[in-house]
Design brief:
There is one protein chain. This protein is 39% helix and 18% strand. It is an alpha/beta fold. The protein has 2 domains: 2-27 and 75-115 and 161-248, Rossmann fold (3-Layer(aba) Sandwich), CATH 3.40.50; 36-72 and 119-154, SIR2/SIRT2 'Small Domain'. The radius of gyration is 19 Å and the shape is elongated. The protein starts with a helix and ends with a helix. Bound molecules: 2'-O-acetyl adenosine-5-diphosphoribose (OAD).
Length: 249
Amino acid sequence: MDDYVDIIVNSENICVLTGAGISAESGIPTFRGVGGMWAKYRPEDLATPEAFAANPRLVWEWYQARREAVSRAVPNAGHMALAGWEKLARSFVLVTQNVDGLHLAAGSRHVLELHGNIRRNRCTACGRESTMDEITFDGRPPVCGCGGMLRPGVVWFGEALPEAVLNEAFAAARECDLFLTVGTSAVVYPAAALPRLALDRGVPVIEVNTEETPFSAGATCSLRGPAGEILPQLVAAYASAPHRSRQTS
Ligand code: OAD
């Protein structure tokens, strides 16, 4: 990591892409790999518009179980480090594929939730959004005030990502001078295009991951280990750079 400290501390416009790995230390399972959700379940049975149309009850039951796990989870040292980093940098955009809301819970402010948020619902008829506290799930898919069926407020496979959020994420990847990709297998597009775009611009891209990923070989630097251990070290180095401690003292 020492070789890259200069690059990190001299960056002012930072863009970070996170995936399920950053929440693993909060007890939320990842999708791929050993113990991942897609080893136990088929995404096409649970996370597509077709699956919901065919069996809304099954999809609701699966999402309710995930919501319960998410509502028990608290942000870990990795989430907290990113929230702290945002306060130090001139510009800091946190793009996440996670739907667990833990970055917001940690205090991050400029968060782009590319795949939505599992704590919200959306009406399939009128589009009204509601929170999970506003509904009771008794085994039957809940219904909106307008009579339409509610669905989890997440993006499923085969669906478009929210356009304004996606545009803002691409703008951040086009404008940053440092990009970090944290706890993501970097295989699901369009999110996976963001670090590649930064690399194509010649911007350093640092990967933080416990394992090698399809992106690792192309990354400027791959830091192997848990995000909850590595990110606090990066932020400490950033905060203690001589020019930065002068600014903040
Ligand atoms: P994945 O499950 O594909 O990848 C998680 C990554 O986190 C893996 O590369 C792990 O090696 C790494 N990892 C695990 N624990 C870690 C830790 N403590 N610190 C750092 N890294 C760790 O999850 P995503 O890349 O987020 O989409 O998956 C992308 C999308 O695919 C998800 O948003 C979801 C999924 O299917 C939809 O549901 C639409």
